Amino acid sequence: MKIALAQLNYHIGNFEANTEKIISNIQSAKNKGADLVVFAELAICGYPPRDFLEFDEFISLCENAAQDIAKHCIDIACIVGLPIRNDVLQGKDLFNAAYFIENAKVKSITKKALLPTYDVFDEYRYFEPSTSFKCIDFKGKKIALTICEDLWNINDNPLYVSNPMDELIKEQPDVMINIAASPFSYTHDDERIKVLSDNAKKYHLPVFYVNQVGAQTEIIFDGGSLVFDADGEMKAEMKYFEEDLQVFDLTEVENVRNKYPQPERLTDIEQIHDALILGIRDYFRKSGFSKAVLGLSGGIDSAVVCALACTALGAENVMAVLMPSKFSSDHSVQDALDLVNNIGCMHEIIPIRDATEAFDGMLAPAFKGLPFNLTEENIQARIRGTIAMAMSNKFGYILLNTSNKSECAVGYGTLYGDMCGAIGVIGDVYKTQVFQLAKYINKERELIPINTIVKPPSAELRPDQKDSDSLPEYDILDRILYQHIEFKQGSAALIAKGFDEALVKRILKMVNAAEFKRYQTPPILRVSPKAFGMGRRMPIVGKYLT
After folding, report:
1. What is the pLDDT of residue 328?
2. Annotated catalytic, 270?
3. Is 488 noted as a catalytic residue in this protein?
4. What is the mean pLDDT of the chain?
5. 41, 128, 233, 377: the active-site residue
6. Residue of 148, 306, 345, 408 marked catalytic
7. What burial letters (b/e) apply to 453-473, b meaning 16+ CB within 10 Å?
8. Catalytic pick from 2, 30, 112, 431?
9. So where are the chain's domains?
10. Which of 13, 161, 292, 355 minimizes the number of CB atoms within 10 Å of its CB?
11. Which class is 271-461+515-519 in CATH?
12. Residue numbering of the annotated binding site for L-glutamine
């Protein structure tokens, strides 16, 4: 039996495009001699559909698409994921399911049992967990089909009524197939490989795993579909961050014991870079836009975002707006111009001095006798935000936010100013990682000016300002933030690790106090195991951790 894994980039709710893509790959798999082609979890509607699932019409469109797909399953079978109605009328209205289609008919339905509710997942909001499991008979083989978490998270969660593979193994299957929507983080590829290898060894069965690729707003899927033999040895690893279709001979996977040459794993920064490119490109493509605008300050954050956007969209589709103030240094303006010249994007220079002075004049009576402080700094940032949004409105550009994760964490940014935008490109990338990204972007030639990388970071909203005037040095700050955010370490645990007590309490207080700002920021491309946004839900008025 020859099994094709179709690793595709779906578009949530775009039934016409998804169906056309699935049908095209059925034909391609048939042309390659495949007996069975396997598509990802909820492939027909795209993942995660969220509250689209609450529309009855949406579920009907999924079923209609499945019937169209079935017509093309002649001389080839397919497995494809979709939501289906729960006709029992007990429990949730839907199942997260997969159809096994053969000879133009749905021959078997597999329903997901283990519904994740952690981090970015909220499947139990919509789906009823399955409690019955049966293998699929096809061409003299028994297939143990599972859906994503069913082969991933085996634990004592009371929602998890039964472990599907422990039930399916009783039927003595010949192969495990797992269809997934497994989001990217830069630690996830190694973890995924280990989990699947462990399952292959535990049940002593080959594993065929297909993942999605592509970005759905903030969630990025990296692909990396995998095949393992019954000893847990990897036999194939498909492309990362790209669509891919490959055909595998089950007999060879079962019987040929040559070791698959392990490719060199990408570094964290290489993965982050490729994920952000995909995230930007898909956000624009799936939203129907093509051109981006951003404020370019001469600092490292906006330089990195500009370089990423030019790679993702083409330099001709990126507008960089330089908005110098009376506090902007000559070298910052020159650094921004050097980047524009190196990278070839469009640019405009719109000084904000006149606008700043106009605001100062308007507010002078109300602020009489009060010294210059954060208020005037924020006015400058909001003027820049207004200009960037004006460019967006006038020319149809989409505004890219350039705030990094360190700034987002401690609230070092201005609401309705530098925190505005449609998508946060590096909001899940710590400042120390931004420096690494800049060096990686420059690996072949200097795109980001060296001076941008080596100079002390500054918002340049007052004379001789540096980030370190308000924040701890980034190498210390990021280490504390990483332990607190990614590993959920509180103050006592951080102090026990050797961090200064006063510094820990100061940083955690800033993180907690900035929650109201994060509620008003754009969606952030998720590249870490714990990103701000839908995967990290904190109360705005909470007292804990202060």
Report:
1. 74
2. no
3. no
4. 94
5. 41
6. 148
7. bebebbbbbbeebebeeebbe
8. 112
9. 2-260, 271-461+515-519
10. 161
11. alpha beta
12. 118, 182
